[in-house]
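Progress report, Aim 2. The chain analyzed during this reporting quarter is listed below.
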Amino acid sequence: MRRKLVVGNWKMNGSRTSNAVLLSEIVAGLAASGAASAVCVPAPYLAQCQAQLAGTALGWGAQDVSAHASGAYTGEISAAMLQDFGCGYVVIGHSERRAYHGESDAQVAAKTVAALAAGITPIVCIGETLAQREAGQTDAVVAQQLGAVLAAISADDVAKLVLAYEPVWAIGTGKTATPQMAQDVHQVLHAQLAQKNAVAAAGVQILYGGSMKPENAKELMAMPDIDGGLIGGAALKAADFLAIIHAAD
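Predicted C-alpha cells for the chain:
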C-alpha cells in the first residue's frame, strides 16, 4: 500500500503573520495522522517554514524551480537554493505555470531533472483542459506530458517522483471530476510509469489536484490509484486542510 500524501499549494497567498497562525494550527492538528503532509509556499516564506516546521510532521516545499543551476536568470530560483531552505518538495509544471508562463513539456522535464539532482521530490503536474477532455484527448494529453518527463530521467529515478493529476477544467471552477473519472486517469498514469520501471511505479504516489475538498476527499482517496491530494484553496484554512489529511487515514 502506498502511503497517502496531502500537499497544500498556497499559490500566491500568505503573509508572515497569517502563515505563522496557519502553520501552527496545522501542526497542532496533525497528531496521529497516518498520511504524509506538506505545504508548498511562495518562495519568500520558505525561511519561515524552515524555522517553524523543522522537527514537525509537516513537510514544506516550493512552487517552482529553475532548470538552471545558476547564472544570469533574473527572478529564477535554483534547486540548490531550495536545498538551502530544507525543501522536501517542489511543484513542477502546474497548470497555471503552463498556461500563464508558457511552460512546455520539455521545460517541465528539465525542471524535474534539476529537482531530482538536488534530492528534492518533484511533484509533477499533469492534466487536460476542458476542450481536450470534450474532444476525447485526455489519455493522449496526459501520456504526452508524462512521457516527456520519463524520457528525461533514468528508470531508477521513477521511484523518486510524485505526480499530481489536475484536470484544468476542475481547478477553481467548482467542477470536480467524479472519483471514477479521476481514478481512470490515475490508472493510465500508473500504467505508463510501469512501462519505464514496473517495480518503482508500484510505489509512486499520484495525487488528485482538481479541487479536492473536505466534502469529497474521502471518496476520492478511496480509489485504488488516488494516493492523496494537491490542495489549493482548502489548504489556506487549517480546519479544511486537516480534514482532508485525516480523510486520507
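Residues 33 and 246 are 6 Å apart (CA to CA). Strands lie at 5-9, 36-40, 58-62, 89-92, 121-126, 162-165, 205-208, 228-231. These observations will guide the mutagenesis work planned for the next reporting period.
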